[in-house]
Specification:
single chain; alpha/beta; 132 residues; globular; 48% helix
Length: 132
């Protein structure tokens, strides 16, 4: 699984990276502290999921999700934020989950389990011919 993390607070970015490694050491992670750099990284490689902060300079995580979805409609999103008032907008963007800070490993694990399940279902659908 390839995951893009976009978080402007460096301590939180490092914490999310550590949580991903604890969840599964084989996850490939690209981290960005700026949404504009994330778009640039996204153009050069593909990702299965993006973990996005919501309030960031230059562009919100919601705007970034819209942009990334336009580039690759199949990407899964988990929003990680200190604000609970953006959940409706996040789920309108087909978010897999919405996690409030401070991040708890168990909570992030549940969200990542959902993404793994989605990826597995997409892979099975691509491999299994219609009508089987």
């Amino acid at each position: 699984m390839r995951v893009l993390i976009v978080e402007d607070e460096l301590d939180t970015l490092s914490e999310i990276e550590d949580c991903l490694r604890c969840y599964d050491e084989t996850i490939e992670v690209e981290s960005c502290s700026n949404p504009l750099l994330a778009i640039k990284a996204y153009r050069s490689q593909s990702f299965d999921a993006a973990l996005l902060d919501i309030r960031m300079p230059e562009m919100s995580g919601l705007e970034l999700a819209e942009c990334l979805s336009a580039m690759s409609p199949g990407i899964s999103f988990i929003f990680i934020t200190a604000y609970n008032n953006y959940a409706t907008e996040a789920f309108e963007l087909n978010a897999v989950d919405y996690i409030l800070k401070p991040i708890r490993q168990e909570r992030l694990n549940k969200a990542l389990d959902k993404i793994k399940k989605e990826l597995s279902e997409k892979l099975n659908a691509a491999v299994t011919p219609p009508g089987d």
